[in-house]
Amino acid sequence: MNQPQWQTIRDRKLADVASRIPTEWQIPPSGLPPASLPNVTSIPRTCGLLTPKELHITEAYTARSLLAALRQHDLTTVEVTTAFCKVIRILTTPIPFHLQS
Length: 101
What we know:
Layout: H1 5-19, H2 43-46, H3 52-60, H4 63-71, H5 77-91
Helix pairs in contact: 3-5
């Protein structure tokens, strides 16, 4: 059975987006939460994508303290940008509910 045109276009676009994400930023299926998990705020800590330092960057700083750490060269802009990009990657990862048991 042929799928509707919109699904074909969607699938192609999703594959294109996925191909542009660095391999090391891919969340393995074991890092995805079960469909029954009502609160997904722990995923950045449990999925294995962020290093301990990246978790610290994204969880321990306010905007002001992050700017101060950058100004004092305690953190680099690359470290901060990478940490937050990984969090965005986690937030935009579709959860395959149909594959959950």
